[in-house]
């Protein structure tokens, strides 16, 4: 399960927990993509260029080291293009049948502005964050700067989850902070995400691939029109997730769970578990 741009593997943790509690025989692997989270500070972190294909190759190499090949790949936003790129790197036949879920992302050029949440354009956020001198004294300082720059408070609060103490071992809330991620590398990744086209995968999928898309009702992307028609025309499904903006796994996790559930089988005690579940 892969996160989006400026995120990290923790973003998907609550939804991953929901899946494994609903389907206990399954395991979920959460990954920090290159330039994000703990991957950004690895001694063996890859040099550029940074792009969708390179991020996909990283994950495939990790799976090979772990001797795993998942039956389901789930990617949100940028991560959606990464999982598509992963299967595209097997042009004719996959090692085993794979279900790919692309969460609120399209195969082609990224066009924002289709929903009510289009003000927090990721490219603009990235450019602004690159202008903030590091280190900073505290998270509140960054929240104030991001909001004053015209971005939403929700994005500001999410962004500061990517701050860490400059000195390792420093207690939470004390000492100067810096980014966990590599913003220059992320700028390259986002440029690739905006411009990489994976329509060839949609139109000529490798043998063994099932490809489904989830469209948020209040998506920041311009769904509908020729793109959605082309996906459906190629024999793939587009599922509408109601009551959700771009952050599908946090805006409507139960609705997303219902859409994805057939890929995992049906849990006999799902209703009982749901009635007692508390989502964080």
TrEMBL record:
<feature type="domain" description="AB hydrolase-1">
    <location>
        <begin position="2"/>
        <end position="255"/>
    </location>
</feature>
<dbReference type="InterPro" id="IPR029058">
    <property type="entry name" value="AB_hydrolase_fold"/>
</dbReference>
<comment type="similarity">
    <text>Belongs to the peptidase S33 family.</text>
</comment>
<protein>
    <recommendedName>
        <fullName>AB hydrolase-1 domain-containing protein</fullName>
    </recommendedName>
</protein>
<dbReference type="InterPro" id="IPR051601">
    <property type="entry name" value="Serine_prot/Carboxylest_S33"/>
</dbReference>
<keyword id="KW-0378">Hydrolase</keyword>
<dbReference type="GO" id="GO:0016787">
    <property type="term" value="F:hydrolase activity"/>
</dbReference>
<dbReference type="InterPro" id="IPR000073">
    <property type="entry name" value="AB_hydrolase_1"/>
</dbReference>
<dbReference type="Pfam" id="PF12697">
    <property type="entry name" value="Abhydrolase_6"/>
</dbReference>
